């Protein structure tokens, strides 16, 4: 069985974070490993508090698991501090890990900041250069590039700038243009736009599910384009069968 590792925040609702990642890995028939970087106190209505794990313990978690088990692919989600970001980048290089997907989480679906301001630059400096795929949404792509993305041309310009920071492939997600969802894949050679049907409503954990689905597919040996297409279809189905288990955002049915 293929193996994937998620390094992310813990979400008690199971709708996002490493819990959602593990559900997604299982859905693709991939065995999931998890290392929490952050614990959150949250529900479907929002994030109440964040506890960033001590760097030494976070680093030890990674060393202990990676000395024993080698994942076929891995991903990051919420990494709150510069220390955590640097540690992940070091482990990727020290253990020669492949198929590294970076979901550069910056803000929750309800608007809470999920990263310290000074750590934004660290993602660009340390994680992007060692990644195979990065999956920022339009908001995150705008933060990292300074480009106000309002149309397809803006997405293209942001993707080119992000590619120059080191990742092999850039995937910008969540473009609600012309009433449809629009994602862009840029590998340095060709722009590929992926359109989808827009589903009305507010949903929790779509970015986590998308990036973890890509990770699972890479572990299974898919090329990036096929992985992104499969991930987009998976998330669309999960949104369409989403669950209202609380008083806030809907949870994807992963």
Kindly describe this structure.
The two termini are 20 Å apart. The chain has 254 residues and is of the alpha/beta class. The strands form 2 sheets. The protein has a 9-stranded mixed beta sheet with strand order 3-2-1-4-5-6-7-8-9, with helices on both faces. The protein has a two-stranded parallel sheet with strand order 10-11. 39% of the residues lie in helices and 25% in strands. The model has no long low-confidence stretch (mean pLDDT 95).
Which class do the helix and strand fractions yield?
A: alpha/beta
Task: Please give the alpha-carbon distance between the first and last residues.
Answer: 20 Å
Mean pLDDT: 95
Number of strands: 11
Question: Main beta sheet, described?
Answer: 9 strands, mixed
State the share of residues found in helices, binned by percent: 25-40%
The run of helices and strands is EHEEHEHEHEHHEEEEHHE
Strand content: 15-25%
The radius of gyration over CA amounts to: 17 Å
Q: Strands of the largest sheet, in order across it? A: 3-2-1-4-5-6-7-8-9
Shape annotation: globular
**Which residue ranges are poorly predicted, with pLDDT under 50 across at least 5 consecutive positions?**
none
How many helices? The count is: 8
